[in-house]
Design a protein that fits this description.
Blueprint (H helix, E strand, L loop, with lengths): L1 H8 L11 H7 L7 H17 L4 H18 L19 H13 L5 H18 L3 H14 L2 H7 L5 H13 L3 H7 L5 H13 L3 H10 L5 H17 L3 H13 L7 H12 L4 E2 L2 E2 H10 L12 H13 L3 H8 L5 H13 L3 H8 L9 H17 L2 H17 L4 H12 L3 H13 L10 H14 L3 H14 L4 H13 L3 H14 L4 H13 L5 H14 L7 H10 L1
Antiparallel strand pairs: 1-2
Helix pairs in contact: 3-4, 4-5, 5-6, 5-7, 6-7, 7-8, 9-10, 9-11, 10-11, 11-12, 11-13, 12-13, 13-14, 13-15, 15-16, 15-17, 16-17, 17-18, 17-19, 18-19, 19-20, 19-21, 20-21, 21-22, 21-23, 22-23, 23-24, 23-25, 24-25, 25-26, 25-27, 26-27, 27-28, 27-29, 28-29, 29-30, 29-31
């Protein structure tokens, strides 16, 4: 068995005279986990193992190096049998335990697996409590479990890898500037992480300079380099760059099993809002977010993950939930998301309140969106010349913007003001001008509003295709289903309308707009029963005073009941 194992791990044996194993074990010391340090250590250990095939400690040292290399750099382990268990108290137990935990962190998927890693590190702590690698791995396991308090405690100190994880945690909590200051250009993993954080604080020049320093092609480094590229694209509105980087990330065979990566991938996809290759950005974002919840832990105080969750809820047509989640995020993006949710709920005063104390300069990515939402809300509340001036200012922003978000906002403002002709003009332009260079992250909503205009003008031939397009971009959006049900109801198909809403009822409590359509559909059936009329009456009663429900529509349906 030992001979076979030596043959398998000895892929880089140099032959000739081997240095005595005991000398190699003493010489090989892992300090900062640089790629050069790990590859050099493995070469020495494998060469020495060829001359001492029965040396269990040597094999355990190889396990340590291989486990750390695959966790830090994504390089596949040459031979998993180096992780064969070493009993506690035996020579090599410490090295094996470090390597085993590092390796398993690349593929842990369940709470039970995470608990087993915790237990192994706790046992190792009985004899190696101050071991820097054990302490760092305790933090990494805590992150997987969603215990950010324990992770932050484990990442205290000057160890370079711990600083990287501490910096990313600060960024998650809405403090990327503080995190960026912790990182220096003394480690390829620090530089690639710093590039991500610099892009998040709109330091595009600094992020680009960092990427120029990253020469490693190791898979994990390549993944973070692509992530940084996507973040740079978002910061300077190079959306084609974002799409290209995300596409390359999607084609990588294996990506790091790390929430810090996946939550940012989710965020970037949400900024594009495309329908691509039989899938869509919203679906990819949802799947990416799930990679942070594989162990069933709550979001905790991870503000970036909360922000992703809020925006996913917006995409699902659940603005009330989105607003409640985003209200827990004190960053500028948190305030912007609160404002976006309030806009969806037809609460322009709440939009202004959310953005009231947020400076609109400098023109960072969050401030650009804040300015658009503020102009939209103020225009909806103003009258006369002030309204015209605000709409003109919003149009000027739309004319110069590199995405279609502002054009959509202009159309939505006209729609809210009842100018359906102008609304249709601007929304159609948002659709027609959407491209890889100028995406519309609210494209599904744009098509929803065009369908709404079709319904309002009795143009069902337009409403139908528009809502189908909205469905294609984001099939999980509840508002799309409600509008589809309204179209079916307008076509005198109340049973089909109720069937369309059935999926929403299965998923949970019906949103107010869905309840209104359901009530109308129940009484519109040719053979509506007394029980169905009673159900409709209950639904109407639940809608009184609810935001997002037109009093006129509520009165119209109530009269039918």
């Amino acid at each position: 068995m030992r001979g076979a194992l030596v043959a398998l791990v000895c892929v880089a044996c140099g032959g000739g005279d081997q240095q005595p194993a005991v000398e190699v074990r003493a010489e090989v010391r892992l300090v900062d986990g640089s790629f050069e340090e790990l590859t050099s250590a493995r070469s020495k250990l494998v060469d020495a193992l060829a001359g001492a095939p029965s040396d269990a400690v040597m094999i355990a040292r190889i396990a340590e190096v291989d486990g750390l290399t695959t966790l830090l750099y994504g390089v596949p382990v040459p031979e998993e049998r180096v992780f064969a268990p070493v009993p506690p108290g035996q020579p090599g137990y410490r090295e094996w335990a470090i390597g085993k935990v590092a390796f398993e962190l690349t593929r842990v998927r369940t709470a039970k697996e995470a608990a087993e890693l915790d237990a192994l590190l706790a046992d190792l702590g009985k004899t190696h409590d101050g071991d820097i690698w054990r302490r760092w791995l305790v933090g990494r396991v805590a992150l997987v479990r969603g215990d950010r308090i324990a992770a932050a405690a484990a990442f205290q100190g000057d160890h370079r890898l711990a600083k990287i994880d501490r910096a990313m945690m600060l960024a998650d909590d809405g403090k990327p500037g503080e995190g960026e200051k912790l990182l220096a250009a003394d480690h390829v993993l620090a530089v690639s992480s710093r590039a991500v954080l610099r892009a998040e604080i709109d330091d595009v020049a600094g992020a680009v300079a960092d990427l120029e320093l990253v020469k490693s092609d190791a898979p994990r480094v390549a993944a973070y380099r692509l992530l940084a590229t996507a973040m740079i694209g978002l910061a300077n509105e190079r959306y084609d760059l974002v799409a290209d980087a995300l596409g390359k990330l999607g084609k990588m065979r294996v990506l790091p099993n790390e929430c810090a990566l996946w939550e940012r991938i989710a965020w970037a996809h949400l900024q594009l809002g495309r329908s691509i290759d039989k899938t869509n950005d919203h679906k990819i974002a949802s799947i990416s977010r799930q990679r942070c919840a594989a162990l069933g832990k709550a979001t905790g105080d991870n503000k970036l993950l909360l922000l992703v969750d809020a925006n996913l809820n917006l995409g699902l047509g659940k603005p009330e939930q989105a607003l409640a989640i985003a209200a827990r995020v004190p960053s500028a993006w948190g305030k912007v998301t609160v404002a976006q949710a309030a806009e969806e709920l037809a609460m322009p005063k709440r939009v202004i309140e959310a953005l009231d104390k947020l400076p609109l300069e400098p023109a960072s990515s969050d401030r650009r969106v804040a300015k658009i939402l503020a102009l939209q809300a103020h225009a909806q509340l103003a009258t006369g010349k002030p309204r015209s001036d605000l709409l003109a200012e919003l149009e000027a922003v739309a004319d110069s913007a590199k995405s279609q978000r502002a054009r959509h906002a202009l159309g939505a403002a006209y729609f809210a003001l009842g100018d359906l002709t102008a609304a249709k003009r601007e929304l159609r332009r948002a659709v027609e001008d959407t491209s890889a260079q100028s995406p519309n992250p609210l494209a599904f909503r744009t098509h929803q509003l065009l369908a709404e205009i079709g319904l309002a003008t009795n143009d069902l031939e337009t409403a139908g295709p528009e809502i189908e397009r909205a469905m294609e971009i984001h099939p999980g959006n509840a508002t799309t289903r409600v509008i589809q049900a309204r179209i079916l109801l307008r076509n005198a198909e109340p049973d089909k309308a109720l069937a369309e809403l059935a999926g929403l009822r299965t998923a949970g409590e019906l949103m107010p707009a869905a309840k209104l359509v359901a009530a109308e559909a129940l009484v519109a059936r040719k053979e509506a029963t007394a029980d169905q009329r009673a159900q409709a009456k209950v639904l109407i009663g639940e809608l009184v005073g609810k935001p997002g429900v037109s009093p006129a529509d509520l009165g119209r349906v109530a009269a039918l009941v």
